[in-house]
UniProtKB/TrEMBL annotation:
Alphabetically ordered keywords of this record: Metal-binding, Transferase, Ubl conjugation pathway, Zinc, Zinc-finger
Signal peptide bounds: none
Name the UniProt record assigns to this protein: RING-type E3 ubiquitin transferase
GO biological process: proteolysis involved in protein catabolic process
Cited CDD domains: SPRY_RNF123
A single GO cellular-component term on record: cytoplasm
Top class in the EC scheme: transferase
Source superkingdom: Eukaryota
InterPro entries: B30.2/SPRY, B30.2/SPRY_sf, ConA-like_dom_sf, RNF123/RKP/RSPRY1, SPRY_dom, SPRY_RNF123, TPR_RNF123/RKP
Gene3D superfamilies registered for this protein in UniProt: 2.60.120.920
Region (Disordered) location: 1-24
Gene giving rise to this polypeptide: RNF123
């Protein structure tokens, strides 16, 4: 069969160097007889051999060699048989008419990605008799149906292959077979598997195989006869992808197949290629001893290209025929790749096999450039496919085999340069496959049962339901199992490390910056490829043709970190005094000097074009950089969007996007790349190399350069040009860095982590979570078996079945977890992420020192710093502990300082990054170790952080701020020491999945800072507390409104389901109300004078507002048979946190502090204000201790009482509540008596109005002045005409009235 590049009609060199008839028969190199013997030995005839025949054979010289070789190659040629099939050659996917839906199709028309709900496509060729097969390489493990269909099958977005009468399919995602109806069949497939589809049109059967193992006959008695022919076909859902092999490449599992579509292998070419390879082997294993006139056999591995004319002329004749064949993918994969792999089969390091380097030299010498280019391209693509779709075996032999050959090829400098420069062959996106180690889903087939014969999982859990790392009551048997399991994990890890080391070797070859003799060094070629790779993944999120799978990205990141650190330290050893890799960071000038392109990624200060305009003076004064005036007029983002819309019509992609099968240019050539290129040419900033060395006052004008225009000098610098480090601010130390190019790679590594690595690390934790859940379930089942009575054999049998299922699942998951821990969560991988965290911290610190230029830093550095810390804390434990990392506490403190300073940094404008910083700080103060780190930062930064937290809650996201203050208080508040909501533990004490809170870890130091700030700054205290009271009023009102709607829905006679989103919002409003009350409790406790010292301007108003809100909450929650009670008793899922205890205890804490713990004057003022509030009801206070209420209903419903929570409310706290109740009872009686006396004197209190007083409010037992003051705290408008009130005057009613 033909292949791309195989039929190229270009002139070839004439290798028949001695074929001229006028030359003498003696070669002048060796004598005629010895040459003849040599040529007969290298090019043996297939006819009878032996001494007698040798003596009679014709003398062979170079002048006859061409004809002799032609005759040898023409012997035994076979014709290809295509009977039983109809269609063109070669077979590809029918992208013109044989599809339904929207698909992306590869350039070679063999790879396809679904881009609609359920897309279908068939091949161009059908079969009607005989035995045929094809292979499908599974790239993603989602929903797909693969098989055969006839021309009459009509598919749509709901029905695909296997859903119509004359189509048959296998679905490894759901493990079923399909032919209108469906039944269980086969095994589940995974990405990297190969499915073989076999059809026998003699017997009428269809069979499928998975990775060379037959799954059994799927269908029998399929429809056959005149007019019936079957096409290979597939239906696949959105973003699923596969690649077909119809025979254009050697089948991976040929032993299963009798023949395959479209025909037999290219037999004639295959025979010639094997013969020619045999002749090459003869040359390599034969040497000529001219002194003894004899031929010597030698080891092929020792052959060297020394330039002997006889050998070279013989090889030239061979390559005259061999070179064109090596442009065909089938022959490269079947002949050349297998030959090269055989050279490495002996083991040992790649350097011990120089024959491959000699052969590559020979290829470049004797083949045309276009031939060797095509050959190398096909060879690397074959290696990539072979590596990606090789099955996992215990010693990872296949993966090691292909990686060793890849390494050997890349050792050859000229070949490496070509492969790096060739945009199709070795783009980073494709080569990333070489750095991935896939996770086996089928443990048995991967051989993990032999490698890890003994399994283990945690069986001891603490009260929080978490695994205990070192359980004290571990039995001897459990200890033996755990240690055996750990030894098996270590064996697996060592084998994986062999593969990882080979992958790092490949990257070190690509990062070589010393191979400049044949052009640009490999590192700088790789750097440009790497930057384009990042651009594709950063700019085209969600586009299936351009995005690198996140599981590939994780492995690539770890190998790249290892290789970069190795190169960095190697350069550091050659340049003593330069920064070593342990202290690596990205200097801030990379963010604004334009040498590194950040595409359209957001900067901390906003858009780059905006920053260049607003900070141009700072750039000139601090960094000696002048922006070219043309650059300041850079296209705005709106213009770019318009360009994108206008350009869409010009793209070939866009024209067919309405339902056609789209031809993808290549794996990397995204349809949206046009926009990215335009963006690069208009918004990125680059430098023009200055003509003379820079001095401090000299300014450098910068202009735009694309990535391709950069040279090594732009990166490394020379003759006074600092390269990537140009524009160093005065605050930045002038510390030498060995290889500046590595800075850009480190910057790219940070970007990679932000793009998808962190999310993937979080996804893989699910296996560990599954192990935990099954372990808990198994332990629970075993306990039930132990408690099961002997008479209930039926229950015992079911429990034992469950026990067996759980144990089998745990055996499988524990082995799979061992693989994941070795490849993703090992100690070495943890150190990589920790190093990345330290790089980000140091980079942020250096950028922060530049002042206003900090705004140029990309947002992703802060994101990666926060996410890397989260990953270290949450994803790598319990297998590896963060506390064991070097410099752990110092790093925590540095990160704490960053979060404390920048969560309210005015230089940061993005709302998303601000929210992320606030959430990270809120998480940071939850845990004792990280909270202590916050306390270790300098006092000035701590006070500044608390001042920012106490800013008014209006016009900014305040919920996270409030949570931070609450977490600083948890453990100090009234009844606020629980880790689980007490009311849930009372109703569901055995539920292990109850919501769990972190153990309280209050910060007395930060509380002291808060108290000092509120005490000294009266204006800030008043505005802060007014905002807290406003938000509490809003949150509690919203909560009450929502539970009214929920109650109404629940009381309807028809069956109603409350929206889960509404329930979630309702619970959130309740939680916000509780947290705001806790902040008020914290403030009242730390700074009571804010409310009780009425010499402060707003103290009385704040106390009245507080009393009003507390009374409202108490009345709503404690009223008999109220709305709150009814909703709580519904026990709706999603409202688990809504109960009496959290909110009533928070209110009680405030009341106790102002009515019991204060001084005499303060208590008197608080009691007076509380009792004078119109909403005050004594029975609400009595409700706290289970007193009061209607005695007739007390038996029907049990009252809430603090006495019921003895584990959470201390005796001292209960005594204080009793004292408060007694005090308020007495004060209430006295107030009632005094009110009765004054009622007749003030039955008609007058209200201040904008008009002449002609009426008054009759408000009963108290003065209207309190109501007026309360109104004016929230609103300065008149009750009626809405005019602004400037003051309130006391009014005495005239005596005549």
């Amino acid at each position: 069969m033909s292949s791309k590049g195989g039929g190229t009609a270009l002139t070839r060199r004439n290798y028949r160097l001695s074929s001229d008839t006028d030359k003498p028969r003696a070669t002048g190199i060796v004598n005629e007889k010895l040459l003849s013997d040599y040529l007969h030995h290298v090019f043996p005839s297939t006819k009878a051999q032996g001494p007698a025949v040798a003596s009679l054979r014709k003398t062979l010289g170079f002048q006859d060699l061409g004809a002799h070789l032609e005759r040898l190659l023409s012997e035994g040629e076979a014709s290809e048989d295509s009977r039983g099939r109809l269609g063109p050659q070669p077979v590809v996917l029918d992208h013109t008419s044989g599809f339904e839906g929207l698909l992306f199709v590869d350039d070679d028309l063999l790879g396809v990605i679904g881009h609609s709900n359920f897309s279908s496509i068939r091949a161009t060729t059908c079969v009607y008799k005989g035995k045929w097969a094809y292979e499908v390489l599974i790239s993603s493990q989602g929903l797909m149906q693969i098989g055969w269909c006839t021309l009459n099958c009509r598919f749509n977005q709901e029905e695909g292959v296997g859903d119509t009468p004359d189509s048959y399919a296998y679905d490894g995602n759901r493990v079923r077979k399909w032919n209108v109806t469906t039944t269980n069949y086969g095994k589940s497939w995974a990405a990297g598997d190969i499915v073989s589809c076999l059809i026998d049109l003699d017997e009428g059967t269809i069979t499928f195989c998975l990775n060379g193992q037959s799954l059994g006959t799927a269908f029998t008695n399929i429809k056959m006869g005149p007019g019936v022919a079957y096409f290979p076909a597939i239906s696949l859902s959105f973003k699923e992808s596969v690649a077909f092999n119809f025979g254009s490449r050697p089948l991976r599992y040929p032993s299963l197949l009798l023949t395959f579509i479209p025909s037999n292998p290219p037999s004639a070419d295959l025979t010639k290629a094997h013969k020619l390879l045999g002749y090459i082997k003869n040359v390599l294993s034969t040497s000529i001893d001219t002194q003894e006139d004899r031929l010597l056999e030698k080891d092929c591995a020792l052959w060297r290209l020394h330039g002997e004319p006889t050998v070279l002329i013989a090889l030239a004749h061979i390559f005259n025929h061999f070179a064109p064949l090596m442009c065909k993918v089938y022959l490269v994969e079947d002949v050349l790749m297998n030959f090269l792999l055989g050279i490495l089969e002996g083991g040992g390091s790649v350097d011990e096999h120089p024959l491959i380097q000699q052969l590559l030299d020979l290829f470049w010498l004797l083949m045309e450039d276009y031939e060797v280019n095509e050959c190398l391209k096909q060879l690397m693509m074959s290696l990539l496919r072979a590596y990606r779709f090789s099955p996992i075996i215990p010693d990872l032999g296949f993966q090691i085999h292909y990686l060793r050959l890849t390494t050997a090829i890349l050792h050859h400098e000229k070949s490496r340069k070509y492969l790096l420069n060739n945009s199709f062959t070795f783009d980073v996106l494709r080569s990333v496959v070489f750095f991935y180690i896939k996770t086996p889903l089928r443990v048995k087939e991967a051989g993990l049962e032999e490698l890890i014969p003994t399994t283990w999982w945690p069986t001891h859990f603490d009260k929080e339901g978490k695994d205990e790392r070192d359980p004290k009551d571990e039995s001897a048997d459990e200890r033996l199992r755990r240690r055996a399991y750990e030894r098996g994990c270590q064996r697996l890890k060592k084998r994986i490390e062999v593969v990882e080391e080979l992958q790092v070797q490949i990257l070190r070859l690509l990062l070589n910056n010393k191979d400049k003799t044949t052009g640009e060094a490999s590192r700088y070629i790789f750097l440009n490829k790497f930057r384009k790779f990042l651009q594709e993944n950063a700019s085209n999120r969600g586009h299936p043709t351009a995005l690198c799978p996140p599981e590939y990205m994780v492995c690539f990141l770890h190998r790249l970190i290892t290789a970069v650190r190795s190169c960095w330290d190697e350069g550091n050893r050659k340049s003593p005094g330069s920064v070593n890799s342990e202290e690596a960071y990205v200097p801030p000038q990379l963010f604004y000097n334009g040498k590194v392109d950040y595409f359209d990624l957001q900067r901390l200060g906003g858009l780059l074009s905006h920053l260049k305009k607003t900070l141009k003076d700072d750039l000139a004064s601090k960094a000696n950089i002048i922006i070219d005036p043309a650059e300041i007029q850079a296209t705005s983002m709106d213009d770019l969007d318009e360009d994108e819309e206008s350009g869409a019509a010009q793209r070939p992609f866009g024209a067919a996007a309405m339902g056609g099968a789209l031809a993808r240019p290549s794996w990397l050539s995204s349809p949206t790349l046009g926009r990215a290129n335009r963006f690069l040419s208009t918004a990125a900033v680059s430098l023009m190399t200055p003509r003379r060395p820079l001095t401090q006052p000299e300014k450098v004008k910068i202009r735009t350069l694309t990535v391709e225009q950069r040279t090594e000098e732009d990166i490394e610098g020379s003759h006074g040009n600092d390269g990537l480090l140009l524009g160093r601010p005065l605050e930045e130390p002038d510390q030498p860095i060995a290889d500046k190019s590595l800075l850009e790679i480190i910057d790219g590594i940070v970007m990679m982590y932000n793009l998808s690595v962190h999310q993937q690390l979080g996804k893989m934790v699910v296996v560990s979570d599954d192990v935990h859940e099954y372990a808990v379930a198994l332990k629970d089942t075993e306990e039930k078996i132990a408690r099961c009575p002997a008479r209930r054999a039926d229950i015992l049998e079911e429990l034992q079945k469950s026990q067996k299922v759980f144990a089998e699942k745990l055996n499988h998951l524990s082995r799979r977890l061992a693989w994941i821990n070795a490849t993703i969560y090992s100690k070495e991988k943890m150190l990589d992420v920790y190093w990345l965290l330290c790089v980000c911290i140091r980079t942020i610190e250096h950028a922060d020192n530049t002042g206003s230029l900090f705004a140029f830093a990309p947002e992703f550095y802060l994101n990666v710093a926060m996410n890397a810390y989260s990953a270290l804390k949450n994803y790598f434990s319990p297998a590896n502990s963060m506390e064991e990392l070097p410099g752990y506490e110092e790093t925590l403190t540095q990160l704490a300082a960053i979060l404390a300073k920048h969560f309210a940094d005015p230089r940061i404008v993005g709302t998303d990054i601000k929210d992320s910083l606030m959430q990270a700080l809120a998480s940071y103060v939850c845990y004792p170790q990280s909270l202590r780190a916050v306390e270790r930062i300098p006092e000035e930064q701590r006070v500044a952080m608390m001042r920012n937290l106490l800013a008014p809650y209006e016009q900014r996201p305040w919920a996270q701020t409030n949570w931070i203050l609450v977490r600083l208080w948890r453990g100090c508040g009234f009844g606020y020491r629980y880790t689980r909501l007490p009311h849930l533990l009372k109703t569901k004490p055995e539920d292990a999945n109850l919501p769990s809170l972190q153990k309280p870890c209050p910060s007395l130091l930060l509380q002291r800072h808060m108290a000092e700030l509120l005490s000294m700054d009266k204006d800030m205290a008043a505005s802060f507390l007014n905002s807290v009271l406003n938000q509490l009023n809003w949150a509690f009102s919203e909560f009450i409104g929502m539970i009214q709607e929920i109650q109404q829905a629940a009381e309807r006679p028809e069956r109603n389901f409350v929206d889960t989103r509404q329930l979630k919002v309702c619970a959130t409003c309740f939680d916000l109300s509780v947290s705001l009350l806790r902040v008020l409790e914290m403030t009242v406790t730390l700074v009571p004078e804010i409310f009780l010292d009425w010499s402060r301007p707003s103290a009385e108003l704040l106390l009245r507002r507080l009393a009003q809100l507390l009374n409202q909450v108490l009345n709503r929650v404690t009223a008999e048979k109220n709305l709150f009670d009814r909703v709580v008793n519904l026990r709706l899922p999603g409202l688990e946190s809504v109960d009496h205890y959290p909110i009533l205890v928070a209110v009680t804490g405030i009341l106790v502090r102002i009515l019991v713990d204060g001084d005499r004057q303060g208590i008197s003022r608080a009691a007076s204000v509380l009792l004078s509030d119109p909403c005050f009801q004594l029975h609400s206070i009595q409700h706290l201790l289970g007193e009061g209420g209607d005695s007739s209903s007390s038996s029907a419903r049990k009252h809430f009482s603090l006495h019921s929570y003895t584990d959470y409310i201390s005796e001292d706290e209960k005594q204080k509540v009793e004292l408060m109740l007694a005090f308020l009872t007495e004060e209430s009686k006295q107030a009632a008596a005094s009110t009765a006396v004054s009622t007749t004197a003030d039955t008609s209190s007058s209200c201040c109005c904008c008009l002449i007083i002609r009426a008054g409010f009759s408000v009963g037992s108290h003065s209207a002045a309190a109501c007026i003051n309360q109104h004016l705290m929230n609103n300065k408008d008149c009750f009626f005409c809405k005019a602004t009130i400037t003051g309130v005057e006391d009014y005495s009613k005239p005596a005549s009235s």
